[in-house]
Design brief:
CATH architecture: Up-down Bundle
Oligomer: single chain
Shape: globular
CATH class: Mainly Alpha
Radius of gyration: 19 Å
CATH superfamily: Phosphatidic acid phosphatase type 2/haloperoxidase
Order of helices and strands: HHHHHHHHHHHH
Structural class: mainly alpha
Distance between the termini: 45 Å
C-alpha cells in the first residue's frame, strides 16, 4: 500500500510537471471556438473574457511519458480505492453548492439562503459556459476510453476529459464562498481538493484533467472578483448568512 501511494505521488508529480512544461513548448494553440450566443447570455462573465490559451496548457500528448504517468495514476488509485472513497466519489458525482453544508453547517441551505442560491445559479451559468469553451479546445478522451483496464465507479460523462468540469466548479464555488465566509477558507479549499480527487477515484478523469480544472477556476474567480456587481452580491450573501452565523456563535 505504501509503495502504491509513493508511485501515485510520483506519477502525479511527473504528469503535472509535464503539463506545466508543455505550456511553454507546445505547438501553436487552435483558434478559439466562437461563442457569440453564450457570451450574449452571460450574467457577470462572458465565456471569451478568459484567455484560455494563457490559462490552460494542453494536456499530455497521447503516447507521451506524462500521458502514461496520468494513466498509471488512475490505475493505481483504482486498485487501492476504498468503499469510503467510492461513496465520496458518488456523493459529489452530482455535486451541488449546498453540499458545502458539510463545511459551513446544516443551516447552509437554499431555503435559508435564497439570494445566495440565485447568485450562484448565475455564477454556475457563466462558469459552465467558460468550461464548455475550454473543453472544446481539448477533445481529450476519458480514461476508460483510453484504456479498457479502467473501470469507473461513477457514470462516464460524454464530454471531453480536459479540463475537469467538476474540479472547475468545485474550486469556483470554494473561491467565491471563501469571499463570503473567509473564516472557512481553508476548509472550503480542502473540500474542493477532495472533489477534485474524487474524479480520479471515480475513474473518469486523469490527474492533469483535475489540475486543469483548478487552474481554469482560479482564472474564473479572479475575473469574477474584478466585477463590482459580483462584489456587491458577495456582500449581500454575507448579510443574508449573518443571522445564522450569529445564532451558531451564540
Amino acid at each position: 500500500m505504501k509503495r502504491i501511494r509513493i508511485l501515485t505521488r510520483l506519477a502525479i508529480l511527473t504528469a503535472a510537471g509535464a503539463m506545466l512544461a508543455a505550456s511553454s513548448h507546445a505547438a501553436p494553440e487552435p483558434a478559439k471556438a466562437p461563442t457569440p450566443t453564450a457570451a450574449a447570455a452571460a450574467h457577470f462573465l462572458a465565456p471569451d473574457a478568459i484567455d484560455l490559451a494563457a490559462v490552460l496548457p494542453p494536456p499530455p500528448a497521447p503516447g507521451s511519458l506524462a500521458a502514461e504517468a496520468d494513466l498509471q495514476t488512475v490505475l493505481h488509485v483504482q486498485e487501492s480505492r476504498t468503499p469510503e472513497q467510492i461513496a465520496w466519489a458518488r456523493f459529489v458525482e452530482d455535486d451541488d453548492l449546498f453540499k458545502n453544508a458539510r463545511v459551513l453547517g446544516a443551516w447552509f441551505t437554499k431555503e435559508n439562503l435564497p439570494r445566495t442560491a440565485a447568485f450562484f445559479a448565475q455564477i454556475d451559468d457563466d462558469g459552465y459556459a467558460v468550461s464548455r469553451a475550454a473543453k472544446a479546445r481539448f477533445p481529450r478522451p476519458r480514461p476508460p476510453v483510453v484504456d479498457a483496464r479502467v473501470h469507473p465507479c461513477v457514470a462516464l460523462p460524454k464530454s471531453g476529459s480536459y479540463p475537469s468540469g467538476h474540479s472547475s466548479q468545485a474550486w469556483m464555488w470554494a473561491g467565491l464562498l471563501a469571499e463570503i465566509f473567509p473564516e472557512q477558507r481553508a476548509a472550503l479549499f480542502e473540500r474542493a481538493r477532495a472533489v477534485e480527487w474524487a474524479r480520479v477515484i471515480g475513474g473518469v478523469h486523469f490527474p492533469t484533467d483535475t489540475a486543469g480544472g483548478r487552474r481554469l477556476a482560479e482564472a474564473i474567480v479572479a475575473a469574477f472578483l474584478k466585477n463590482p456587481a459580483v462584489q456587491a452580491e458577495i456582500a449581500r450573501c454575507r448579510a443574508e448568512a449573518e443571522p445564522f452565523l450569529l445564532r451558531k456563535a451564540a
